[in-house]
Each structure stands twice: as structure tokens, then as C-alpha cells.
Amino acid sequence: MHSPQCPMPFPPDQTPSNSIHVNARVQVLSEGEVRVVVVAGTPVTRFACGDQAGEAHAMAMLVTGGFANPTQVQRAFGCSRQTVYRVVARYDEGGVAALVHGKRGPKGPSKLGAAAVRRMIALKRKGEGNRPIAAKLRVTESAVRAALKRAGWQQPGRVAQQPLPLVTKAEAAVVGAVDAAETTGTPVDDVSSAAGDEAGTSAAVVAAPQGAAGTPVPVTLDTDPRDRSVDRLMARLGLLEDAVPLFGSQRNVAGAGVLLAVPALVHSGVFEAAREVYGSLGAAFYGLRNVVLALLMMALLRVKRAEGLRHTNPATLGGVLGLDRAPEVKTLRGKVAVLAQRGRSEEFMRRLAQRRVEAQSEAMGFLYVDGHVRVYSGKHDLPKAHVTRMRLSMPATVDHWVNDQEGDPLFVVTATPTSFLTKEFPAVLGEVRGLVGERRVTVVFDRGGWSPKLFDQMVRDGFDVVTYRKGRYRKVRRDKFEEHKAEFGGRSVKYMLAERPLKLLRGELSAREVVRLSDDGKHQTSIVTTRKDLPVIEVAYRMFERWRQENFFKYMGEQFALDGLVSYGVEAADAERMVPNPERTKLERELKKARADLAACERAYGAAAASNEEARRRTMRGFKIAHGDIGKVLRASKQRVDDLAKRAHALPRRVTAQQAAKGEPVVRLRTEAKRLTDVLKMVAYQAETALVRLTAPHYKRIDDEGRALIASTLRSHADIETVGDELRVTLEPGASPNRTRAIACLCEQLNATQTTFPGSTLKLRFAVREA
Q1: Under a CB-based contact definition with an 8 Å cutoff, are residues 443 and 429 in contact?
Q2: Residue 137: burial class (beta carbons within 10 Å; 0-12, 13-18, 19+)
């Protein structure tokens, strides 16, 4: 090799192609495989391509000698500044010898970490061999074999897949030691030795106790509620579908008051319905029951989204669930996604609604139907809906909710934003008929469902109607109103009412019109009903009770995040549905503006004619000549209005969604995950309502503070302990003696139900700690 000639440095714009400009004094020249560092025209060092030690020495020399700064060096040598800093630090500490790398590869025996073992097992399950796994993990094949042996890995098919109740402690120990859990960090050797000790002490088959419904309840081999290593091991090996609740003695557990809602949740049948519809999530520590219970308790504790779990201690919430840790964000979102993929949320909701109809049949005489608009502000192009509270149209999703006469939710139907309530009513009423059977039901709704043709069909199908009258109608004389008083559900009401018969559809449909006069006597509200047997005051009361549903929407939005997004994805929507033609809508907006401009021109022309001096311009011809500029603008405005009107009328009013999208995909927000979480929030709301009603006889301000009292009690601290076959929950006293007495009475009523905690044989016993 020979060194290239080293002339004086070139200016940056004249640097030859075989050199790298570092700064005004320093250049790196290259010739073949040799690199020469030149400082002020003098070569100071050289190194061959691939000589890492020589390159590092050149970088360190330039920086320590003050010839270039680290940024200039990293740009010239194509590395990061951190690399330059590390090279300089090694050079300062040990000189040139420190820049020579030692032998690469493992320096000695090392134990693979839990993350590497988990990846190893995942690759083995995919059918990978030990040698490819070793190459991917950059370890030896013998290290892979040793790690798999320590983890108790066995080829699929060698471990018998049998129900957990038939697994003995000895069999659990034979499986071998594996990483205890993703979350506990328990050493493998500790878990292995613990399993071996447990196997040595007892090898009897663990009997499966019977649950409340007579179904086998899985058992656990774990004994410490804070360490569920064996159950997590069993889940990894495919021998466990759901972790069994295991409680210990815990003091002052935050949020343990939510256990008060468990009897109401069990009574709703949500766990049985979930099992009937979804079956199982497969081998999992967090199985179907635990996931459903976690979502319900999150709603009652006002953890409104899965992301809210980031601000909740998983060990604390896990203690309430009977687990060592509650599922965290990624786990819970993944479980919900798995359930959503099965597409059974509608069936799940229908099963729960059927159970509620059977249990609360007396509350199904009147059903309230109303649409709720959920505004969407994401990036996807969704259809728009009119948002009443904002008085404008925005991208949104519309849900039609059905509530019973007590205001509690029954089910929800997701609709397209471009559809009116009148078009969605057949689907809603079909669901109602499937739930209530052949009994006659009165449906209460607002003006959005006004349609005499719909009313006639509803009467034929066995439904009655109570709704507001829409459009203009003849007012009732003041002397026709009479005062009516009555009491409904312990509430006294008083209205000024008048009644008159009403014929719709040209006399084919007979109805009643009940008109209420406002307290100030200035406003009249007309109510139309097909019920002939109801007293006029009950017609008015049932109509005005529709505000319970509005209050339900408001409360659910504030407390349960009813409008929150659960998933951000979209799915294909009905591309053949008819929607307003966007081209015609655009032309109609332009036509409206053009007509406004024409009206302004006509006003200006009329004002000029009114102020015309006839002595100067006695003829219309003279007037037109004098105001030719206004006339010209007026004629142009008229022509524009005519052209726009012709173009608008030539277009159809409605087109298919595919035509309106102009080639873009027709989508809507995914409905399965949202419907599933809405149903669970609905069940949580029903459980909260049940607790409020149980507390009502013992708390005077239940109408004003009932829900606040229950919500605060559910979030309160409590002691948890197991005594025999009982799970005892001792709550903290309330903020005042009357609240404490009310909660104590509630505890007595819940104890009388003898409710068993889901997935166990422990009976719940509640009490309030003495102040």
C-alpha cells in the first residue's frame, strides 16, 4: 500500500470526490481501501477500511486534539454522536489499547431471562427447531435446550388437556417450573421448588365444589392470594380457562365497597348469559368471567375506559376481584377484541333483556324510545347527524335506546345517522315484540317519530302510542282547561289539562289529544295517544316522564362515558342505503345564497323607484336608463337563480351511499366492541339503580342524593377477609350518621340474599365498621 498525495485542504465547494470534508482544516482522503486523515495539509493518521480500532483512534484524535467537534466527526464518519463520545471516553481512560475490542460473544455461562424464555416457548409452539431459535436469540443450541428444560417445555400432545378440577398437586408439580407470570417476576427456581414441595405433601385429587347453579366451580392449587404462580402456569399450559377467586385478609382496600354491587350483578344473570353466548375465551388466566366482572366493576368504580387502568393500582383492584392483579390495559383491550370478533354482542344483549323482562314484567307496560347521537371527531369520513344540543350537523353515530317505565335501559339498536326514527321503528318494535311476547305495550317517544301511518301500523301490530303532536294545530280555549291531580309511585303531580278527540289519516285512525297549559298560561303542549282507557292525567304524566330517558343519557355520559370510543377502527357499512344527494345539497345552498342576493337587488331597485323624481324621469324608460347599473345586476341575479334552480331540480334528492361517497369506501365505526361495553355499562347502571331502590326506605333524601350516596359507597374503602365459607366485607362508616345507618340497612338486605361470589363457593356478608 502507498499513501495518497496529501495536498492542502480544499474549500467545501471544491472538495474532490475521493475526500470527505470535515471542516476548514480537516479532510479525510480515500484511495482504494486506505483512509488518510489530513489536518492543515499534513497527514496525521491512516487506517484501512474495516479497521474499527484505527477508525476509532482517528475519531478520538480529532476530538481530543481540538481539530473537530463531535458533531463534525460523526457526520464525516457516518456514526452517531453517542458513538463518538464513547470512543473518546475509552481513549481517555485507556489509550489506544482501550479502542481494540475484545473477543465477541458470550464471556461465560449466562442464564436466559424470563422474556427470552417466553419468546423461546412461543417459537417452539410455532414449530421452530432449537437451532433456528438459538440463531434468533444469538445463543447456543445447548442454552436453548437447557432453558426449555428449566421451563418444563413439552411437545404439544404430550400433556393431556383435562379440566382443572381433575388435576392433582402431584401432576401440577410434574409439569415443571416455568416463569411464574408476566407480572410477578417470581424466579423460576422458586416456583419449581414450591411446586415440588407441594407435590410431596399431598397427591390427592382436588375435588370440584358445586356452584350456586349446580355447575362445577374450578379450584386452585395456589394458597397465597398475592401469588397465583401455579394458576398462571396452568393457564400457560392450556389447563385453565379462568382463574378462581382467591381472597385473603386485607385491610382498608380502596374501592372494595364495589363488592356491594355483586348481588345485584349476579341477580341480573350477566355471568350466565355471557357463558351461554360466548362460552369460553380458551386457556387463560383472565377468562370470560373475570373479564366480565372486571369490566362491570370498572364501570361502577368510574374507570370509564380501559386506559383508565393506568391510574389504578392493579394489585389493589385485583384484591377486589379475588386475583393477585387485575388485567391491565393491553390485556383487557385484547380480551374485548376477541369477544368482539365473535359478533355475538346483540345476542348477549337480547339474553339479558329477556331475563329483565321476565324479572320486571310489571315495568314493561310503558316503554320509552329515543335516539342518542354520539358525536365523532376522528379522521374517518362518517355520515352526519343533527346534534340537538349543539344545533348543527356533525359526523356521528346514532343509537336508539329502549327504556322501561321506570327509566331503566332495556336494550339499544345502532342505526345509521341518515335514518329517521320513523324508519328505525320497525326494527325496534320487532325487538320489543320478541321480548314481551303478545302482550300489548304502550310506546312513548318524542316528535322525531311522528308519523300517522306509523301509528296506524303500530296499532295493528298490538302497540299503543303516546307522543307529542307535531306541526301546527288549533289552540284550546282557556276556559276548557281543568286542574287534575294524582299520585304516581309516591310522587304527586298536578296539571292544567284539556282533552279533545282527534282523527288522523283522513279519519281512518281515531286518537285522543290531551293538551297541557303551562303554569304561566302562555304555552300549550299537545299530546296524542291511541290509548282510550287511560285517564288524561296519566297520559300527561307518562309523556312528561320521557325526561327520565334524557336524564339517563346525561348521567351515563358523565358517569360511565357512554359516548366514549372503545375502538378506533371502522367496518364496511350498507353502501346501498339512500342518503341525501350531496351535489344537490351543495347546489341548494348556492341557490339559497343567490336568492338572498336577488332579494337584496330587488330591495335596492324598489328603493330607487320609490325615491324617483317624476319631474325629472316621468317614464319607466327614463328610470331604467338612469338606474341601468342596478338593473343589470338584478337581471344577472335572476338569471343565476334560474340556472341554479334548473340544475338542482335536475338532480335526484337522494342517492345511494356508494354514489355519494364518489368511490371512497362507505364505512361506520365498529359496533361489536362498543355494543358489548355499552351492554355491560347498562348492567352496571341497573345494579346501581337496584341498590338505590333498596336504600330508599332508609334514606329521606334518596331522590336528591341516592345515586351520589351509592356511588361514593361503592368507591369507599373496606376490609376483606374469608371466614369459613363466607367472604366478609366490612365497609367504612359514611360521612354522616344517617348515611351510615342507610348503608347498614342495605347490608342487611344484601346478606339476606345469600349471594355467592361468582366463580366460588364463598357467600358474601356485608357490615359497616363501627365508628
Answers
A1: yes
A2: middle
Does pLDDT of 162 surpass 70? no
Bridging pattern class, strands 463-468 and 441-445: parallel
Q: What is the pLDDT of residue 693?
A: 94
Distance in angstroms (rounded) separating the CA atoms of residues 430 and 698: 40
> Tens digit of pLDDT for each residue in 70-106?
888 888 888 888 888 888 888 888 888 888 876 555 5
**Structure-block grid coordinates of residue 607:** 328603493
Does residue 378 sit in the same domain as residue 440? yes
Least confident of 25-34, 505-514, 596-605, 700-709: 25-34
Q: In what order do the strands lie in the sheet with 763-768?
A: 250-253, 718-723, 726-731, 763-768
d(CA 401, CA 549): 9
Kindly state the cell numbers that stand for 595. Answer: 336568492
- Predicted pLDDT of residue 541: 95
Under 8 Å between Cβ of 528 and 470? no
Q: CA–CA distance from 614 to each of 370, 529, 544, 606 (Å)?
A: 64, 64, 64, 15
The closest of 676, 360, 687, 372 to 551, measured between CA atoms, is 372
Structural domain range at position 73: 12-99
- The answer to whether the Cα torsion of 573, 577, 583, 589 is positive or negative is negative
Does some domain include residue 174?
A: no
The dihedrals phi and psi of 187, each to the nearest 5 degrees, come to: -60, 150
Cα separations (Å) of 306 from 100, 310, 336? 51, 8, 10
Rounded Cα distance, 67 and 27, in Å: 11
Are both 615 and 685 inside the same structural domain? no
Query: Looking at residue 391, which CATH number applies to its domain?
Result: 3.90.350.10
For residue 306, the tally of other CB atoms under 10 A from its CB is: 22
Neighbour count for residue 103 (Cβ, 10 Å): 6
Distance CA(266)–CA(446), nearest Å, equals 34
For residues 463 and 353, give the distance between their C-alpha atoms in angstroms, rounded to a whole number. 19
